[in-house]
Amino acid sequence: MKLWNHYYTPTKLSEASELLERYAGNARVIAGGTDLLVDAKAEEGHTPFEALVDITRIPDMQGIYDQDDAIYIGAGVSHTRIVQSDVLRKNAACLVEGCGVIGGPQVRNVATLGGNVAHALPAGDGTTALVVLDAEAEVIFEGERKWVPIAGMYRGPGQSLLNPTKDLLIRFRFPKLGAGEGTAFDRIMRPQGVALPVLSCAVWVKLDAAREHFEQIRACVAPAGPVPARLETAEAAAAGQPVTPETIETIIQTALSALKLRTSKYRATAEYREEMAAVLLRRTLTIAAQRAKESPQAR
Ligand SMILES: Cc1cc2nc3c(=O)[nH]c(=O)nc-3n(C[C@H](O)[C@H](O)[C@H](O)COP(=O)(O)OP(=O)(O)OC[C@H]3O[C@@H](n4cnc5c(N)ncnc54)[C@H](O)[C@@H]3O)c2cc1C
């Protein structure tokens, strides 16, 4: 089965943009190919892509670094590199944990964070973590280079803001983890392994100076709608409350009354998924609060 006619490996952002422009809608961006090529192979009578533009050799899309108050990750960085990064382990445990459960080692070695976001599935595990990290994505969208909040990258299930025959996702940034802050991610899978996750959950918490109260939290349970979204009412319920099991139960109950989880034959029943949302929120909030308590003091 022929999947493409021409394959390009540009080493500069400008070259990738020029190729996309030259093919005028007939070229497609590719990173690890673990979504794109798997979908193409599954498509009956797939017409080969006229050209694939592989972005994984472009240095602007390959870095993981901290600069000033932010952490930057290139869109072409693989999940394996994210898992192995000390900078990310220190500043974004939820992202390391989320990317660490994507597929198996072979998938993680080639699949990228940019592909996870550009594919725009509401269940993307890297995406769920980026939502609570308050990340932004740098893109070339309709010819203009700009930063977009992560929530603005989604138009619907599988529908990205970006047109992958024209636009490019370059890198992500989010604030460095501060004193009294912590994050965590967890997910529930069916035991069969390759099945879709029942539910994933990421949280970010900030405690007050005494580290006894939640000052602010961000939480995301996915997939729970057409696009990944934060649990804003539950987040509001946490503000100013003591870090206790009782507060965590209040946050969970507030989240459950706002969440509209559906039964899915590929995932589980709505009732089971609701119970699992409670389990995941309880686990991740407890772990993130503990990490926040133990985080280094501000200098
Ligand atoms: C066996 C298996 C298991 C998997 N398990 C999981 C899982 O547990 N959790 C999970 O979240 N995902 C999972 N996935 C899905 C997939 O691996 C991830 O979504 C991965 O991060 C996609 O990245 P990629 O680099 O392979 O994207 P690609 O397939 O290369 O691209 C995906 C889409 O994004 C576009 N694109 C890619 N990079 C850019 C860019 N820089 N700019 C613009 N557009 C771009 C492409 O054109 C395409 O439309 C699994 C896939 C497989 C095959």
Number of helices: 11
Written as H for each helix and E for each strand, in order along the chain, the element string is EHEHEEEHHHHHHEEEEEEEEHHH
CATH uppermost class of the largest domain = Alpha Beta
β-strand number? 13
Strand order, biggest sheet? 4-5-10-6-7
Give me the secondary-structure category.
alpha+beta
Intertermini distance: 59 Å
By CATH, the topology of the largest domain is Uridine Diphospho-n-acetylenolpyruvylglucosamine Reductase, domain 3
Residue share in helix: 25-40%
Please, how many domains?
3
**Can you tell me the overall shape?**
globular
Supply database-style keywords:
299 residues; alpha+beta; Uridine Diphospho-n-acetylenolpyruvylglucosamine Reductase, domain 2; Uridine Diphospho-n-acetylenolpyruvylglucosamine Reductase, domain 3; Enolase-like, domain 1; five-stranded antiparallel sheet; three-stranded parallel sheet; globular; binds flavin-adenine dinucleotide
3D architecture notes:
There is one protein chain. The radius of gyration is 20 Å and the shape is globular. The chain has three domains: 4-54, 2-Layer Sandwich (Uridine Diphospho-n-acetylenolpyruvylglucosamine Reductase, domain 2); 59-175, Uridine Diphospho-n-acetylenolpyruvylglucosamine Reductase, domain 3, CATH 3.30.465.10; 181-294, Enolase-like, domain 1. The longest helix is centred in the last third of the chain and has 25 residues, at 270-294. The N and C termini lie far apart (59 Å). The strands form four sheets. It has a five-stranded antiparallel sheet. 34% of the residues lie in helices and 26% in strands. Helix 9 runs antiparallel to helix 10. The protein has eleven helices and 13 strands. The protein has helices at 13-23, 36-42, 79-84, 86-91, 93-99, 105-110, 113-118, 125-132, 232-238, 245-258, 270-294, and strands at 4-8, 27-30, 49-54, 64-67, 70-74, 136-141, 144-149, 154-156, 159-160, 168-175, 181-189, 197-207, 214-222. By secondary structure, the chain is α+β, with helices and mostly antiparallel strands. Strand 6 and strand 7 form a beta hairpin. Flavin-adenine dinucleotide is lined by residues 28-36, 38, 55, 75, 101-103, 107, 111-112, 114-116, 118-119, 124-125, 162, 164, 168-169, 194.
